[in-house]
Amino acid sequence: MKLTFIGATHEVTGSCTYIEACGKKFLVDLGMEQGQDIFENVVVPVAPGDIDFVLLTHAHIDHSGLLPLLYAGGFSGPIHSTKATSNLCNVMLRDSAHIQEFEAEWRSRKAERRGEPDYEPLYTMNDALGAIGLFVPHDYEAPFSPTEGATVTFRDAGHLLGSSSIILTLEEDGEKRTIAFSGDIGNTAQPLIRDPQYIDSADFVVMESTYGDRTHDRPTDYVTALSGILQKTFDRGGSVIIPSFAVGRTQEMLYFIRQIKEDGLVSGHDDFPVYVDSPLANEATDIFIDNRESCYDDEALSFVRRGINPIAFEGLIRSVTSDDSRAINSDTRPKVIISASGMCEAGRIKHHLKHNLWKKENTVLFVGYQSINTMGRSLIEGAKKVKLFGETVQVAAEIRQLPGISGHADVNGLLSWAKSISGVKKFFINHGDAQAVEAFAQRLRDELGAQVYCPYSGAEVDALTGEVLFDAQPKPIPKKEKNQANASASYTELMAAGERLAQLLRDSNGRANADMKKLAQQINALCDKWS
User: Fold this and answer.
1) CATH of the domain spanning 222-401
2) Listing from the earlier edge strand, what are the strands of the sheet with 426-430?
3) For residues 291, 295, 297 and 298, what is the CA-based torsion angle, rounded to 10 degrees?
4) Residues contacting 496, CB < 8 A, separation 6+
5) What average pLDDT does range 117-144 have in this prediction?
């Protein structure tokens, strides 16, 4: 029995663990790396066609996103997951393939103008459909055997609809070991879905640490805060535009708005329409409804059992076609528009921003984290103008942000989950940045007296003893440097000017505030002109 850590090692995305046991080779998760990539990952040490099966914790792309690539390489085994995860992957992997093909087509058009070769997508829609066809859905708490000598149970991790921790029991040559894979552990008191369910015992635990070095802020009274924003905006004749992640956050917003409407918390606008303008969000909403009995928490189920859909209400309009989307901006009533993507980097939300950002009566409300270098982050930080579809748009709308209800447990939630498991010989900590991984490992040592190992990609562990067979070292991704030999003289001159500007900025500390403000405005205007 051997574990090899492939991805999400001292990083937050790209989850993947390779296992050899019971005469089989299999994976727990195969996710796509997203955002900043710090360390190099080793490749899975066998060909895709030699993988016997996959166990999937949940549908988020950083856990599932490379399954179509595995299929394209020759994998044909089963992908085991919960029913809700299987349903969500049916939508999310198709959406990911569409993005891959769209970006490759766009890059190829630019490459053709430069006389360069076409770009190939990471995988195609056919690859995604092939992977989707391999899913084998299971119920929570229903043990199954993917192969002789192995038993798997999915337990609700409370992170996303269908998300699970995996309890894997392996028996080989008369020896039996239980390994618990946490998956992403959810926060408590989230709307709709249940709190994470604990695990009684395990020999070894492979555990995430996304928020392993911090606690969450106090929960916002979302209903009161949201109803106040709606009231203020509607009273001045405006609309509220909400960039929202299609899976999870959109459904939470519908849950809150239903309560606002039912309790009459927005006066004078009782029939205000709410548009959900995202095909992915609309499909995901149906999946939430279809999996209500197995995944909803007690509060949400109490509505269901009274015949109330907790994420539907009078005035909800779900836009599907492009014509439906365009028609929204012809509706002059005060309204709510919920659209993806959540950070305003792609999708239909950009069209709604183009139509609504310049109107001072409107509000753009952010309800999730905004990464650095995204349009959403720029708006929150006070951008006065943004570029949308090649056109400069003035920002006159009110920009607001409600702290997101984090889908991840904080350090206290992680510790509670870990403390519930008896008999643990060693913890293996992954799925966190380097600081979070090491900080959480130390908390486990200090508070549980636990043995803890924080692997880098390529580390190998004996699953019988917990002994580290190969202690991989970190391999930072080298910085890409421009090949100046191939740069044009104009480009070289431009870079020299950039270095001169950078030196000017470094020397500006101590200048008069008015001078620094004027310089910042001039630089921003220059960026707006050329971006």
Assistant:
1) 3.40.50.10890
2) 144-147, 150-156, 164-172, 175-181, 204-208, 426-430, 452-453
3) 70
4) none
5) 96
Give the separation between CA 72 and CA 130, rounded to whole angstroms: 8
Q: Could you state, in order of their start, the residue ranges of all structural domains in the chain? A: 2-215+407-470, 222-401, 494-530
| CATH code matching the domain that covers 2-215+407-470, chosen among 1.25.40.390, 3.40.50.2300, 3.40.50.2000, 3.60.15.10 | 3.60.15.10
Q: How far apart are CA 6 and CA 27, in angstroms?
A: 10
The mean pLDDT of 435-442, rounded to a whole number, is 96
Question: 296 and 193 in contact (C-beta within 8 Å)?
Answer: yes
Contacts of 256 by beta carbon, 8 Å cutoff, 6+ apart: 191, 222, 223, 226
> Contacts from 113-121 at CB under 8 Å and sequence distance 24+?
121/97
Rg (CA), the chain: 25
Task: State how far the Cα of 101 lies from the Cα of 124, in Å rounded to an integer.
Answer: 6
Locate 358 and state its tokens.
Answer: 């310049």
Q: Which of 32-36, 101-105, 344-348, 460-464 has the lowest mean pLDDT?
A: 32-36
Q: Cα-Cα-Cα-Cα dihedral of 339, 344, 347, 349, to 10°?
A: 40
Which tens digits make up the pLDDT trace of 47-62?
A: 999 999 999 999 999 9
Q: Confidence band (pLDDT; 50, 70, 90) for 217?
A: confident
Are 53 and 146 contacting, i.e. CB atoms less than 8 angstroms apart?
A: yes
The residue with greater pLDDT, 134 or 521, is 134
Distance, CA of 165 to CA of 200 (rounded, Å): 12
Output the pLDDT for position 486: 39
pTM above 0.70, yes or no: yes
pLDDT band at 507 (very low <50, low <70, confident <90, very high): low
Cα torsion angle, 36, 55, 244, 531, sign: positive
| Model pLDDT, residue 503 | 64
**Phi and psi at residue 17, to the nearest 5°:** -130, 130
Residues 139, 82: contact at Cβ < 8 Å? yes
**Following DSSP, what letter does each residue of 369-401 receive, concatenated?**
---TTSHHHHHHTT-SEEEETTEEEE--SEEEE
pLDDT at 490: 52
Q: Report the relative pairing of strands 16-21 and 336-339 from DSSP bridges.
A: unpaired
DSSP type of residue 39? B
Lowest mean pLDDT among 81-95, 105-119, 379-393: 105-119
* Gap between the Cα atoms of 177 and 424, Å rounded: 11
Strand partners, 26: 19, 53
